[in-house]
Specification:
This protein has helices spanning 22-33, 40-52, 58-64, 71-74, 98-103, 117-129, 167-183. With 187 residues, it is mainly alpha-helical. It has one domain (2-183). α1 (22-33) packs across α6 (117-129).
């Protein structure tokens, strides 16, 4: 912000000028939480199935899986957002950062890296410390599930008829929190 004191422009957008891809960030979050990274449509299908579970009320479902509270925000993007040079993921307007980069040496490519693993893990540690994540440990690399004999157990497939594991609501909640943070006009 200091750099903008003497800028000769009326408005600058305080957004990262070198955006990371969704996968560059979420693959690290999925690994750390030991949950699969699945396509958006599949994730939404799982969320819809969780909501349709007749063994509990909608209020109970939304309490157990906070992403259900935002399901109406997620539904319009089942088949992806309309393609546009003016829009980011989830239809968020793409902000022009040319003037901000001109005015601030800190925002120039040589001084600023794209978001990645370190940032994703830092967010998770913060959410853990703040009590938003109940998981005790975060994995740095994927670890297969093994029994005492060293045999690797097959993880359930997305098409299995089993109920989602206890980490599934967590994965949904993390997606919901990050989606909401990304969609809000913080900058």
């Amino acid at each position: 912000m200091f750099d903008f004191r003497f800028a000769n422009v009326g408005t600058v957008h305080l957004a990262h000028p070198y955006p990371a891809t969704w996968t560059d960030v979420f693959s690290h979050i999925a690994t750390a939480l030991r949950v699969p990274l699945v396509p958006y449509a599949e994730w939404l299908d799982r969320l819809e199935a969780d909501l349709a579970d007749s063994s509990r009320t909608e209020v109970e479902a939304a309490t157990a899986n906070p992403a259900l509270r935002l399901i109406n925000i997620f539904r319009p993007y089942r088949n992806g957002a309309p393609k546009s040079e003016a829009r980011e993921a989830m239809g968020v307007p793409k902000l022009q950062t040319t003037e901000a980069v001109k005015a601030s040496p800190a925002l120039r490519r040589e001084n600023l890296r794209s978001l990645g693993k370190e940032d994703a893990l830092a967010w998770l540690r913060y959410w853990q410390k703040a009590g938003l994540l109940k998981t005790k440990t975060l994995a740095e690399s994927p670890a297969p599930e093994a029994n005492g004999n060293g045999a690797v157990h097959k993880r359930s497939t997305p098409h299995s008829r089993q109920k989602p594991s206890s980490t599934a609501p967590l994965a949904f909640a993390v997606f919901a929190v990050i989606s909401l943070i990304y969609a809000l006009p913080w900058f």
